[in-house]
Amino acid sequence: MGFRSLLSMFSSDLAIDLGTANTLVFAVGKGVVVNEPSIVAINKHNGAIEAVGREAKEMVGRTPGNIISIRPLRDGVIADFKVTEKMLDYFIHKAHNRRIFVHPRIVIGVPSEITPVEKRAVQDSAYRAHASEVHLVEQATMAAIGANLPITEPSGSMIVDIGGGTTDIAIISLSGVVYSRSVRVAGNEMDEAITNYIKRKYNLLIGERTAEMIKMEIGSASALEKPITIEIKGRHLLEGIPRSLTLDDSEVREALSDCVGTLLNAIRVALERTPPELSADISDRGIVVTGGGALLKNLDKRIRDETGLPVTVAENPLTCVVLGTGKMLYDFDLLRRVAIE
After folding, report:
1. Are residues 196 and 130 in the same domain?
2. Which segments of the chain does DSSP mark as H helices, in order?
3. Tens of pLDDT, residues 144-200
4. The domain that contains 286 carries what CATH number?
5. What are phi and psi of 46, to 5 degrees?
6. 108 and 39 in a common domain
7. Is 168 found in the same domain as 95?
8. How confident is the model at residue 10, as a pLDDT?
9. Which single residue of 94, 131, 155, 299 could bond 221 by disulfide (Cβ 3.0 to 4.6 Å)?
C-alpha cells in the first residue's frame, strides 16, 4: 500500500451521482453514505430549507401554501442553481457526519450530452458547497465501471443507464467512449406518461408519487406471465371528488409504450453507429442495463427480443453510477483518462 493510497484512506473525498430523481454520495472507505431523492422543501416566506431528500419527498404534493417542494435538477441537469447548491451542501455535510471544516475532492457523474454552461453550473455548485477540486465524469461510463464491465480492455461494452431524467447509452472500449448519447426519456417521463394516460382514459388526476408507484408495482415493457392489477386513488376531474379505480398491467404497458419505443430506438441507433469490430464484441457480451429504469419488468426481455442480443440487468442497478464514480477516487490515472474537461 503506497503513501498515495494511505493518504486517500484518511481523506474526505466523495463521489456523487447527481441524479434528477435521486442523489447518491460515496465516501472513501465508507461506501455509499447518502442515497436520497433529489428534492428540497423550501419555505417561501424566508427561503429557509424545511427538508431535504427523503423527508422532502414525503411532502411532495402535500405541502401547505408557504412550503414548496423543488426538484432542482431537470433532465439530468441543474434547473435551479441556488437550490442545487443547498442540496449538495446538505448531502456533503451529511456524508461527513456534519463536520464543518471539510474540503473534499469531489467526482461527479453527469449526462453525456451536457453543455459547457451546464458543466460550469455543476462545478460551481460543488465549489460553493466547499469542494477543493471537482472532476466531472460521464454517467454511462461510470455505470459501466460500477457494473464491473471490463472497460479498460480493447473490447466493446455497451451500457444503457436509465435514470430519472435521462437515459445514457454508451459504447466503451479502452477506457474511452466510442459512442455516447443521452436521451431525455427516462423514469420521470414514464411517470408523466402514466399520469396523462389515466387522465385521458378515466378523467382521474393522480399525483406524481402515485404515478411512480404504479410504474414500480405493475409497469412493464412486454406482456407479463400472469396479469397483475393495482388499486389507485385520485381526484375525478368532472366530479371533483376523490375516486379509486383498478388498473391492470396491460393499460400501464400501453401508457408506457411510447417511452419504451423511444428507448429501443436510441439503442438501435447506437448499434448502427458502432464500428464493426466492436459490434462483434457486443454481440458476444451483450448489453448491460443499469439505473432505476432497469427495474421495469420485462424491459431486458423486450430489448433482447428487439435486438437479438443478450441483455443483462446489472446487479445493483441503482448504485452502479455512484460505485463506478467511487472507484475514480482510488484510481487517479483512470480518472485522468475519463474525466470530461
Report:
1. no
2. 3-10, 54-59, 81-95, 116-128, 139-146, 187-202, 208-218, 249-272, 276-285, 299-307, 320-328, 332-338
3. 999 988 878 888 889 999 999 889 999 988 878 888 888 889 999 999 999 999 999
4. 3.30.420.40
5. -120, 5
6. yes
7. no
8. 52
9. 299
68 and 171 housed in the same domain: no
Average pLDDT over residues 113-127: 87
Rounded average pLDDT over 297-317? 94
Here the contacts of 249-254 (C-beta below 8 Å, separation 24 or greater) are 249/218, 249/219, 249/220, 249/224, 250/223, 251/197, 251/201, 252/194, 252/197, 252/214, 252/215, 252/218, 252/219, 252/220, 253/219, 253/220, 253/221, 253/222, 253/223, 254/197
Contacts of 2 (CB under 8 A, 6+ apart): none
Q: Range of 308's domain? A: 149-314
DSSP state of 221: S
Convert the pLDDT of each residue in 205-256 to its tens digit. Answer: 998 889 999 999 999 999 999 999 999 999 999 999 999 999 999 999 999 9
Q: Give the phi and the psi of residue 19 in degrees, each rounded to 5.
A: -105, 160
Task: Quote the cell numbers at residue 239.
Answer: 366530479
Cα–Cα distance, 341 to 339 (Å, whole number): 6
Q: How many residues does this entry show for the chain?
A: 341
What is the per-residue pLDDT for 99? Answer: 67
pLDDT band at 63 (very low <50, low <70, confident <90, very high): confident
